[in-house]
Amino acid sequence: MGLCRDGISEPAHNEGMYKKWWFLFIIAFIVAACASSADDASTDATDAETEDTSDETAVETDDPAEPAVPFEFDIPVGTQIDFGPAPAVPEGDVAPELVEALNILTSTDVDEILWTPEQFEAAELLGQGGDPRVAWTLSDILRFSRDATQVNAINNAVNGALGDDVLGSDFLGANWGELTDRLIAWDIPEPTGYIDQKRAIFSSILSAWEPFFDPEGEVDWRFVSWGGVRIDDQPYDQTPGTTCNCIPAVDNPETQTAEEATWLDDDTVVFGVVINGEARAYPRQIMEVREMVNDTLGGRDFAMPYCTLCGAAQVWFTDNVDEVAERPILRTSGLLSRSNKVMYELNSSSVYDTFLGNALTGPHREAGVVLEQHTVVTSTWGAWVEENPETTVLVEELALGRDFDFRNNRDANGPIFPIGDVDPRLDVQEDVLGIIKADGTPIAFHVNSALGALADGQTIEVDGINIVSSGSGIKAVDADGNDIVGHQAFWFAWSQFNEGTELWPEV
Q1: Contact indicator for 446, 504 with CB cutoff of 8 Å
Q2: On the CB side of 311, how many CA atoms lie within 13 Å of its CA?
Q3: Are 255 and 293 in contact (CB under 8 A)?
């Protein structure tokens, strides 16, 4: 075979050229096909874009998107109770003979089976005097009286003092609560010498109450009544059972971890406290039995009263109280003020305002003690643990085997003790988070409205107070996220102890 310059024979060269051109043809065909496919894809994409744009335009034109629906607040507005017109009150002091009659009625134990003839005569004179102010002392006697003859004499005196037509024909008599509700609502002034008369009545029932009645104190004694239990005067650092015939506080309670607290369900209501990064939960089941805890958390001593009647759990620091030498130890007195528990200090018998934390009577009032408050969050146990996994909780034994659930049973139909008239902007037992603003103005945030607004993604801010979620409840913080002190309570209690309070949302 002959060779060319590249060493390939001539027949082989021609065959190679044929294969080369065939190969190039194939490549060109593939390129053309790809280009055609790309053009088709581009055309399809363009058509799709045109079609989608057309659809979007049609949606915008023919079926416009609905605007966001504003959150609607569901606020149970209260009812203004009609107590009828208030009786006319004479000007000046109560007549001396009526004051003397009141003193005669309160000169012996009010729960004695029989009055003396002089006392029955005194009651008759009070009914003839026409002065509604004496009804306060008569109401206090009625609270404890058990003898039917006594009760009848008191009712006759009340009707005469107020005017026979004031209470109306539906007044059943011997109804201390209804009478007191009206006296509070009418704002009837107290009679001359009232604190001495009331001291005599209450100390005849229980001598331990006598020191509370301080004539220099800052208590409106018209609103104070008996809550049906004795005073808790147990020595500090005891956790009594059921033998004290009182509502027994618990001091330095035993606690356990969240993992150990298998007795709690996720939906169990607890009152959560965080101090210096240390968290603790106080189950409502325990607080309904104890109503007062003296505890230490995060290096701080505090007292935690809970009022079952007004739905309020609070924390008051009891360390670093420079005005007194000893740490204040708070207890339940057994007395109420418009259905709010009256707490007192064990060692000094000084009465404290449960809502404001200031001493109202006794040596602590003279020293000017005002306790510092700390935030309490009302939450379910499951939500509290999720937010505070290292929390501790009080042990089940502290409930003394009881689970009252007063809120949904005893108190389900409203307050069971006199409260008088209530601001009708909310229903009496609606939960509110109460805050004192920087300028001293009280404001209440309706809890259910706040929870709904937060769940809807809204922010809540009023004068530097921001309401945020905490556990399954709410709390107040400033712009930097620092807690602003507040506590939850029923509306009737917050509004009466903070008259003229602002309300969010406005109604």
Answers
A1: yes
A2: 25
A3: no
Local structure of residue 274 (DSSP, 8 states): E
Q: What span, in angstroms and rounded, lies between the C-alpha atoms of 222 and 143? A: 13
**Residue 274 maps to a domain:** yes
Domain that holds residue 11: 1-37
pLDDT band, residue 404 (cuts 50/70/90):
confident
pLDDT score, position 239:
67
Please tell me the distance from the alpha carbon of residue 125 to that of residue 160, in angstroms, as a whole number: 9
In the Cβ-directed half-sphere of 474, how many Cα atoms lie within 13 Å? 27
Residues 194 and 255 placed together within one structural domain of the fold: no
Same structural domain for residues 238 and 369?
A: yes
Strand partners of residue 491? none
pLDDT in tens, 216-253: 999 999 999 999 999 999 999 976 665 678 999 999 99
Pairing verdict, β 250-251 and 292-297:
parallel
DSSP notation for 293-325: EEEEETTEEEEEEEETTTTEE-EEE-SS-TTSS
How many domains are contained in the chain? 4
Q: Please give the share of the chain, as a percent, with pLDDT higher than 90.
A: 71
Q: What are phi and psi of 286, to 5 degrees?
A: -75, -45
pLDDT at 73: 83
Inter-CA distances, 17 with 5, 13, 333, 341, Å: 16, 6, 116, 111
Measuring CA to CA, which residue among 345, 264, 270, 355 is closest to residue 309?
A: 355
Q: pLDDT at residue 337 above 70?
A: yes
- Check: pTM over 0.85? Answer yes or no: no
SS3 category, 10: helix
* 61, containing H or E segment: helix 10-62
Residue 167 shares a structural domain with residue 107: yes
Do residues 6 and 132 both lie within one domain? no
Pairwise pLDDT comparison (497 vs 18), residue with the higher score: 497
Can you spell out the DSSP letters for 99-160?
HHHHHHHTSS-TT-S---HHHHHHHHHHHHH--GGGHHHHHHHHHH---HHHHHHHHHHHHH
Determine, yes or no, domain membership for 211: no
Task: Please compute the mean of the pLDDT values over residues 86-93 and round it to a whole number.
Answer: 94
Q: Is residue 246 one of the residues assigned to a domain?
A: yes
In a domain, 335, yes or no: yes
Which residues, in sequence order, are bridge partners of residue 392?
A: 257, 280
Dist CA 468 CA 476 (whole Å): 6
